[in-house]
Amino acid sequence: VNAPFTGQPLIRAEDVAHLTGRARFVDDIRPEGCLHAVIARSPYAHAVLRGVNKASVGTLPGVVVVITAADFADVPAEIPIRLAPLAGFERFLQRPMATDRVRFVGEAVAVIVATSRHAAEDAAERLEVDYEPLDPVVTYDAARADASLLFPEAGTNVATRYTAGMGDADAAFAKADLVIERHMTAHRHTALPLETRGLIAHEEADGILRCWGSTKVTQWNRKALAVMLGRPEHSMDLIEVDVGGGFGAKGEFYPEDFLIPFAALRCGAPVKWIEDRREHLLTTNHSREMEATVAMAFARDGTMLGVRAKISADMGAYVRTNGGVVPAKAAQFVAGPYRIKDIALEVEALLTNKTPVGTLRGPGRYEAHFFRERLIDLAADKLGLDPAEIRRRNMLRPEDMPWSLGKLVPYEPASAVDSSDVPAAFDAALGALGYETLKEQVRKPQPDGRLHGIGMACFVESSGAGPSETARVELLEDGGLRLISGVSTQGQGHKTVLAQIAGDVFGGAVPMEAIELRNGAASLIEGGFGTYHSRAVVVGGSAIHLAGQALRAKLLRVAATRLQLRAEDLTLREGGLWREGGTQPLASMAELHAWTREAGEAPDATETFKPDGRTYTCGAHAAHVAVDTETGQVEVLRYVATEDVGKAINPLLIHGQAIGAAVQGIGATFLDELVYDADGQLLTGSLADYLVATATCFPNIETITLENSPSTLNPLGAKGAGEGGVVACAAAIANAVADALKPLGVEINHLPLGPDRLLRLIPEKAA
Amino acid sequence: MTPVEHLTVALTVNGEAVARDIPARLSLADFLREELRLTGTHLGCEHGVCGACTVLLDGEPVRACLMLAVQARGRAVTTVEGLAAKDGTLTPLQAAFQNHHALQCGFCTPGMLMTATALLAENPHPTADEVRDAISGNICRCTGYVQIVDAVLDAAQ
Predict the structure, then answer these.
(1) Model pTM greater than 0.90?
(2) A720 within 8 A of A645, measured Cβ to Cβ
C-alpha cells in the first residue's frame, strides 16, 4: 500500500484478532481472585422500597457481601448530566441504587458479590425485598396528569418544557395556501449492541482503581466517578478493551459504573459484573419514544413556508447523562435540509415508570425526519406535485451555504450547516433507484398481487461535536509511529483510519503496518473527550493530523540543522527523509528518531484541534417496497441511501458504516420495539420478543458515499459517516408504505410498521 | 437449593483431548470460556437466539449457551480458535471476512465464522439466498450482513 493512504479502501488491521478468537472483550478478562457481582432488581415499575433484608442471603454459600443504597448514603451519588442540561432536569437524576422508591422494572436494589456468578445468582433469587406497589405512570397522558408522581417532592412528572424558534412562524402560516398537520409517534427501542455491558473493577497494588469495560467517554466518566467516590481522578483509570458495539447506548455513566468500583473497594478484590440480556433490555438506555404534533405551511407551488412542532418525549423514570439530547435534537432537526426560516417549537420531556432513555445513533433525527418527510408527501399529494419535485423546489442548495439553523437548542449556541449539496445527494439516490421509470411501474397492477410503493426522504445530520480533541504522535526507535488519542472505539476501525491520516502527514515514510494506536483509557492523554456525535475521525482525526504535522516539522528542522540544509528543501516520503529532487533517501525514520534524540529533543508532538462549529452531512434515502395486504408483511425490494461525507478517509469502512446503519434503521422501523403493559412491565425482555434484523430480512440495501462538499471546518474536510445511514430510514420506509397503501386510504403516522400494525390500518375489504 | 454436583467430562476441543471435573450445570459455553480459557466463543444472549456462541459439535453448528458441557462428553468441539492453521494462516473464509470488511465490532464474528464454516462444508457453492438462510440465526448489529454474505460467497469461489 502506497501513500496517500486516505481515500483508499484499506482493510483493517483490527480484524485478525477477532477472526481468530484472540480479541479481548471485558468478559474475556479474569483477574486472579475475581469476585462476581449480580444485581438484584425491582420487579415493580413503581413502588415504595420498604427494605432489603441482607440477612436473607448473607450466609448463603459463596456470598461475600450484599450492598444496598444505605451503604453509600453519605456519598454525593446522583449521576450527573453530561449532555443537554435542560432546565428542571436536575430534580430527576438517578442514584446508582434505589433508596426509598423504585421507579422502573429493573432498577437496582442491591448488589450481591459472591465467589462465583452461580453463587451470586442463586443468592439474588432468594433476596427478600419489601415493596409497596404504587400506581405506575406508563403513558404520556398519565405523566402529564400528575395524578401519580414519580418524584412527589418535585410536584410534577414534567422534567422540562421549553420553546424555541426562528423567524416568524405565525406570519408564515398566515400566508400559507396549505397547512398539513398530523399527530405522529415514534416508538421506543434501543441500540442493542451484541455485547452487553460489563465492568471489572479492582484497586491494584499500586493504589490505582482500574475499571475495565468502560468506553465512549472514559475521561468524563472518570471525573464523575471521582466525585462520587471522593477520590482524586489520578488514582483511577477507566480502561477500554474491545467493545462489542455501542451505537450510543454503551459507555454512558450508568449506575453500575459506580456500583462495581464501589463493590471492588468494599471487597478489596477484583469484582466483575457482566450484564445479561434481560438486564440489558431492562436497564441500558432506551430511546426514540416521542409523540409530536407537527404542522408545515406551504404555498400553492409547494414552497415550504414554515414549521411548527410540539414534541413530547417519554424520558422514562430518570434523566440520565444524555437523555435530553433526544427531544432537543428532534426539535432542532424537524425542518431538515430545506430552506425554511420560520420555525416554532414546543418541547416537553415527561417522566414515566419505564427504563430511562439516552441517545441512540442519530438521536432525535430518525424521529424528526420521519415526522417532516411524511408531511411533505401528504402536501405533495394535496398540491398535485411529484414528491421528488416538491423536495427539489425547497432543498438547500450549495449556494445557500453556510445555512443558519438558528438557535433552536437551549443549551447550545446557534449553529449553521457548513457545506452541503443536497440536490446531488438526492439525485444520486433517485437515480440509483431508477425513480422516473419505477414510479410509472408501481402504479400498475403487480404480478405478485401486492401493492407497491416508493418512498423518499432527505436528511441533514450534524457531526464532529466539540469541544476539542487532543492527540500525540510519537516517532518510535524503530521508525514506526505511535498515535495516542482521546477518542474511544466500539468497533468502527479507528486504528486503521487514524493510521491512514497520520501516515499521509509523513508522506508514506512510515508504512501503515508500522503505525500503532493507543486510545480509549481515561489516563492516556489530557484533553480527550471520547467518541459520540460522529466526532472520532472529524475531531480526533484532525488532532492526529495537526500533531503529525507538528512532529514532521520538528523532524525536518532537526535534520536540516544536522545536515546544514534548509528545512524547506527536505521532505518525508517512502524510504524516510529525502532532499527535494534527490535520488536516494538521506535517512530512515529510525535514523531521524536517533538524530532527534541526539539533538536533545523529544521525537513526538502533541496538538489540540478545536473545531469552530459542527460539520453537517446531508443525503437522501429512497425505498421501493411491496406490501402484502393480507398479511401486513412488507418486503423492501430495493433501498438506496446516499450521504455526502465531505471526504471519505476509508471508503471501505464508510460503506460498512452506511450499510450497517441502514439495516439497523430499517430493522428498527419494522421490528425493534420495547413494549410495556399497563403495569409498566416490559413485555419484550428477551431476543425472542425483541426482534432485530437478521440476514434474511433486508438483502437489497445499497449505499452511495459522496464527497461533494468537504467540510470547511477541519483540515481533513471530513464529516461524520456513521449516522446518515440510519436517520432517514423511518421516513423513507413510511413514505414507501404509505405510497403503496394510498389506494386504500391508509396514512402512516405512527411507528413501527410491523405486520400487526399495518393490518390494523388496512381496511378488511382490501384483504 | 444449590446442588453443586460435579461430573467428569472428557472430550476433544480443537483437536486436543481435554478432561475436567466440572459442575453439572456448567454450560458448554462457560466450560470453553472459563475452564479452557477459549474466550473466542462469545455470549450475546444466553438464550439461544443471537448465535454468538455458535461452535461446531462433530461438525454441526450448535449453541454453546444452550448445551451443558457434560452433554459434549466424547464429542469433538471446534471453536473459532481452531479455525486458522497453527502458523496463523487464516482459512479462506477468515481471509474473506477481512477482505470484505465483514466485521466491525467483531462480537458476532466467531459465531458467524462457525456457522459459515459448517455451511461451506455441507454446501461448497451456496447461493446468496442460501448463505442468508444459513446465517439467519446469527445476529450482527454492525454490518447489515451484506458484507458477510459477500465474504462467504467469495470464500466459496
Answers:
(1) yes
(2) yes
